[in-house]
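Hi R.,

Here's the chain you asked about this morning:
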Amino acid sequence: MINNISAILKDACEKLGYNPKEIVVSFSNIPTLCDYQSNFCFALAKELKMSPFAVAESIVKQIGENKEFNFVAAMPGYINVSLKDETFSKLANGLLADEKCGVKEHTKKLNVVMDYGGANIAKELHVGHLCSPIIGESLKRLYKLFGHNVISDAHLGDWGLQMGLTILQLHEDGYLDYYFTGKGTEPNITLDILNIAYPKASAKKSVDPEFKAKADAYTKHIQDKDEPYFTVYKKIRELSVKTIEGLYKELGATFDLWYGESSCDEYTDLVVDMFVKKGLARESDGALVVDVAREGEHIPIPKQNPDDEQLYKNPMPPAVIKKYNGGDLYATTDIATIYMRNKDYKNLDEILYCTDSRQKLHFEQVFRCCKMVGISPENQLLTHVGFGTMKGKDGKPFKTREGTTVKLDDVVNLLVEKSSEKLKSNGLEPTRDLALKIGIGAMKYGALSNFVTKDYVFDIDKFLSFDGKTGPYIQYMVARINSILDKADTKAGQIFVQDADEKNILIGILKLNLAYETCYKEKSLNSLCTAAFDLASAFSTFYNSHKILTEPDMAKKQSYLGLISLVKKALVQAMWTLGIDCPERM
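And the predicted structure, written out as tokens:
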């Protein structure tokens, strides 16, 4: 619609000899006045040395009668545009027949790898692991909706210090004697054992330098695939992946690849050699580093004492690609992973990462390294989508009452419990599947409603409200439409748009479709959340003012049914993009 209106305005200007620099058409701020408006006449009037209203009048006069739109000049210099009833009707039937409800695929199809999830092996998943699979999954679906080819990778943290710490602790606690001495029987290492071992080891390394050094050595043994360290590592990884996969599945996050940092192991030495051979790496305190700072960055502050740590103004510190003991770091494996991805998948247009925003510096260093050494082609996009922190109602990081980190499976169970209570209060006897869909949907909508980089409050009671801007509200509207369609004594027919409530629904769908593009550009789903809620609200207004099932005029009833079928189609597609299921009944 915007493109069509812009083309008509541009054609009129050309015929008048006007040459506007830009014609911007937007949705009207006053929907009761018009559907769209443009204010380009103000800038054009200065060039023509005319009043803005006179310019607008001349353009509207030049357009004359149009079969699709009504153009009106408005003081002090706007052009207001309204769709005719026939245009609304044609639009509605076209959207209903369209597979993607009017969302146009992008002309250039990109080949994209999306890296999200990022859970660590041998560590219990907690509430902090929620955002990455939720945001990453919705971005993947958004890209696919636009026709792009996307490969998703959970990219597990399975090659770092946490593995050395965990295996060392298990060894010291006597669980690994079978592997290291060959005596006794093979132990049954469970998740409960791992959930004790890692936190215990993590706390110990902070106060015991010898333990930390030994954990570094264990990590190096694992990365060198020395036995029995590597065998123990593989068993822990297998056990952890099954648990992570199950929890991610409940969150609605699915992956094409379950790779991890270890998957690129064969390439780590190769990429480090690339930096060395090109003279891009230097030694620093026994480690290998790459200076990634650009002009104006990484400005040293003079030391007061030669033993002081080096500080910088506007710091962009060097990227460390090899530890003092020859071990790999996160930067090493991330660089090697980009090398591997470009080797395995030809012509990748973009590699997108979805992680906590606190990793911004890390990814900036990694991306610069890859561009410097030629691992990432010049025209390849390397994108980091950093998200904010989930907080409790007290404004602090979300914790249990005891101050400990909330486990992810406890969050899922709490959502199921709370949504079950909500459904019972509404007179429904919920199944776990229904409660899970509503609970997970509520949490996802609450998380995605905020701009991606902002912190947000994890408030389950607010998220689960059936009123207001929430996921359950939209799910309920879809369920209500399902109920109407099931009870109707006739099928949906040709849509004839006549009154304001019907037009508001169509404008709502057009705004929803525009929101997809906004989300794609911003890499944030908040605009889609808002537009979906606004469309659901427009349907609610229509439903409350129209007797759909008892309408005596059959053509009008079939038109109503067609219109609400369109609303359902648009809402279900939007919720699918957000990774939210819409139950048939609520």
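The first strand starts at residue 26 and ends at 27.

Let me know if you need anything else.
M.
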